[in-house]
Write a sequence for this structure.
């Protein structure tokens, strides 16, 4: 083990900042371009740290910044101990982490344990070493089925449409739940386990305060990789063996006061909460809430289930409206189907952005008032809509592997507009950015919104400021208040009340002494308009 980093030495083991934190997700490639080459980088993030500090967030989660051929936007990692040159250097990442910390912002890095890049030295060595070699045991290599081994070893479906097995020239096949460029690791192998614990230490030593665990429910596979019955995912999703893996990770994290955050697409709330037992992960993304439609009963059911299943394990809930994999909130809430489902994403879905934006503003106040921590995805605070990416500019393998039916995830990954009047909206590029920005995005630019009191940016800034300073926010109890049908009203500690009107008619506000913030104007009679939320003090 390396000598402790100064940040490590300072760590406050009793600090539970993560139970109430507002965490901002930075997709580095699209955040800010510091060197002008068309893609965002660490220099761009460092230059924009004051913006993040002013926004009022507590931590930043960075999507993977490691050396990667970018077959899946960096989720194909070739070396966890190196920063991709397109983003910068390891020294810059260290500087970024400490500069952010000086501004009160903690850093969360993204670790991808299910797979590595096919360019990772392990996989290259495995290919070179051939069938039966110890190098191949780090992955899932198998002979094929059929007379000449021409058929894949099992029938598991891919997480992205398309094949789950790829055959190599010597005839063996390897498993990849995602693209062929992302071979799955064999988590039964002690070397795989040891390596990831070392990687955790590597980043904790460099000051990371937490780790987001990618595809956390997928690493363990059923012994022997047998065929699955149709729709049965239990051979490769949410297997009991995972808990031991994360217990070992927790022991490492605890040495550093680090936090583990799971990307767990596990629909059963009881199974989900098992990962949040006190010796496993600290928190996990609440995808149930994210996927629910804009309907009072649906959202209330999600909130109730979430809180009910988190309470027994003592973990705080999280609230997420969007991320780099899903449709942007203002677009989703402006569609007929306001829920989210990967399988249903299509091109040119009719969208009413003014309705969607009104609802997204209300949803922001709702999620920021709920008990626990909250995640914002870069551009959410600007109210960016999902962009239509021209076919010839799409990068996302999800699009290609769907046979072109699914537009993929690039529409939420467009480079941010910082300045209304600058080239490429001030993203910083001297050339066309890696994904094109739509025309007409000037009103979304951060500089324009900063000057507009009623903008989405200023709503988020005010809300985050109140949330940070005021009593009742973050971790703690929630009590539902009586409300008209279609209206959600709850109180928190310290007299904080949140009301959200998802009905078609204006709603009376519950008794209060002051209005802290609303997502839209009250009507002449002081009532909350449809698709609007308010924070009150009683
Ligand atoms: C996670 C990431 C996603 C990535 C996938 C494979 O779901 O959020 O972007 O494509 O894992 O690593």
């Amino acid at each position: 083990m390396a000598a402790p980093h100064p940040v490590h030495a300072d760590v406050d083991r009793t600090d539970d900042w993560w139970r109430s934190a507002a965490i901002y997700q930075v997709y580095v490639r699209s955040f800010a371009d510091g060197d002008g080459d068309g893609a965002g980088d660490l220099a761009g993030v460092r230059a924009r740290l004051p913006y993040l500090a002013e926004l009022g967030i507590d931590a930043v989660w960075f999507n993977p910044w490691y050396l990667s051929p970018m077959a899946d936007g960096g989720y194909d990692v070739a070396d966890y101990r190196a920063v991709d040159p397109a983003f910068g250097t390891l020294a810059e990442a260290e500087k970024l982490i400490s500069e952010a910390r000086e501004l009160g912002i903690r850093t969360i890095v993204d670790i991808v344990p299910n797979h590595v890049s096919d360019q990772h030295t392990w996989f290259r060595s495995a290919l070179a070493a051939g069938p039966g070699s110890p190098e191949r045991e780090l992955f899932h290599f198998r002979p094929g089925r059929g007379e000449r081994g021409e058929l894949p070893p099992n029938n598991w479906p891919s997480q992205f449409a398309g094949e789950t097995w790829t055959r190599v020239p010597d005839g063996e096949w390897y498993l990849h739940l995602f693209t062929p460029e992302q071979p799955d690791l064999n988590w039964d192998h002690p070397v795989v386990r040891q390596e990831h614990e070392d990687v955790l230490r590597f980043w904790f030593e460099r000051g990371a305060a937490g780790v987001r665990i990618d595809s956390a429910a997928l690493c363990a596979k059923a012994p022997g990789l047998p065929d699955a019955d149709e729709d049965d995912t239990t051979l490769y999703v949410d297997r009991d063996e995972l808990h031991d893996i994360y217990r070992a990770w927790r022991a490492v994290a605890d040495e550093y006061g680090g936090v583990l955050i799971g990307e767990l697409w596990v629909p059963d709330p009881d199974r989900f909460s098992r990962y949040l037992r006190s010796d496993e992960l600290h928190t996990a993304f609440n995808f149930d809430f994210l996927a629910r439609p804009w309907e009072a009963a649906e959202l209330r059911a999600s909130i109730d289930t979430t809180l009910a299943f988190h309470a027994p394990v003592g973990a705080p809930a999280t609230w997420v409206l969007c991320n780099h994999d899903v449709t942007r909130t203002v677009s989703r809430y402006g569609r007929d189907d306001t829920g989210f489902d990967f399988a249903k994403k299509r091109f040119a879905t009719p969208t009413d952005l003014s309705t969607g934006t009104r609802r997204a503003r209300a949803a922001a106040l709702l999620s920021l008032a709920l008990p626990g921590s909250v995640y914002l995805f870069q551009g959410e605070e600007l109210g960016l809509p999902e962009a239509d990416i021209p076919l010839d500019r799409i990068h996302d393998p999800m699009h290609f592997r769907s046979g072109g039916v699914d537009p993929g995830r690039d529409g939420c990954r467009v480079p941010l507009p910082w300045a209304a009047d600058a080239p490429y909206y001030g993203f910083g590029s001297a050339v066309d950015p890696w994904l094109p920005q739509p025309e007409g995005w000037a009103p979304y630019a951060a500089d324009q919104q900063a000057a507009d009191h009623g903008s989405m940016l200023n709503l988020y800034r005010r809300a985050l400021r109140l949330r940070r300073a005021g009593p009742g926010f973050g971790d703690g109890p929630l009590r539902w208040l009586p409300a008209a049908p279609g209206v959600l009203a709850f109180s928190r500690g310290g007299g904080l009340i949140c009301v959200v009107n998802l009905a078609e008619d204006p709603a009376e506000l519950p008794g209060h002494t002051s209005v802290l913030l609303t997502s839209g104007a009250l009507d002449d009679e002081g009532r909350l308009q449809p698709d609007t939320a308010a924070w009150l003090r009683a």
Remarks:
- The longest helix spans residues 353-369.
- Residues 17-113+190-462 form a domain with the TIM Barrel fold (CATH 3.20.20.80).
- The radius of gyration is 23 Å.
